[in-house]
Write a structure and sequence with these properties.
The chain has 310 residues and is of the alpha+beta class. The protein has helices spanning 2-13, 29-40, 54-58, 99-116, 135-141, 188-192, 210-216, 223-226, 238-241, 261-264, 268-273, 276-282, 292-302, 304-307; strands at residues 18-23, 69-76, 89-90, 124-127, 146-147, 153-154, 162-169, 198-200, 203-204, 232-234. α1 (2-13) packs antiparallel against α4 (99-116).
Amino acid sequence: MEAVAAIKAEALRLGFSACGVARAGRVPEEVLTEYDSWIETGYHGDMEYLARNRELRADPRLLLEGTRSLIMVAMNYYPAEKQHPDAPQFAYYAYGRDYHKVVKKRLDQLLHYMRQELGLEVEGRAFSDSAPIMERYWAERAGLGWRGKNSLLIIPRAGSYFFLGELLVDLELPEDEPMRNMCGRCERCLKACPTEAFLSPGRLDARRCISYLTIEQKGEIPPELAERMGRRVYGCDACQQCCPWNRYARPTTIEDYKPREALLSLSPEELEAMTEEEYLALFAGSAVKRAGLSGLQRTIRSLRDNFQDD
């Protein structure tokens, strides 16, 4: 179908690194059962939103009446310039602007292109980690990559430093073929986790995950985990930095994801003493705002001993 080729070409022009199509339907029961088990065991911690909206999560067609296809996309955020190892470490995805807005805006542009340039009569809705959609499952179905043992989507010869997004449309488009998992026997990501958060391949106890501890958890960080966290104050890339597929990672060309100089040069002392006004100025339009200044300063206090190590 020529329209699909044109849609994919436009997605690449808009800055996405990969684009594929999956036929809308209900998520297989075995996938939902595994997810339910993860929730029931409490591995989601305080993230109660993950336990809500099961039916919406199970079937994206309930989010937009008439949905027949999901156009799945991936956008590269790997930074060309990184923080000094001695600085308070932020996960790479948080270096630039809030990805929710960047990805959704470009998906909206893709929908506009389908209507105006291709002349398609189409209704659609764009999301990026902003609705109860099992994005990694659908990205796999659309042939973008496979779910690694660290639970992240891995794109062949590109790696895992990608944001995912989806455009739900009421058109039946030819679907792409899923690809086979190519992790093989490698378990570097499981062994690299500083807090041993992985229970088994693809299964994570969020309550031990540094990303959860620094962003989602509202209480104090347990001292026995804090001493393992190094200088990570917002998120963690440990299970990606060791992945052999990320040797193919190339710096993003998306201007919105390029870090601000003030972030790259931020010291632990500056972060701990930061005022609300300074915080809002530095992290305006950034995903870091999810933790709040109080959350960042709680974390830096918990890790104070880690910054004093030689």
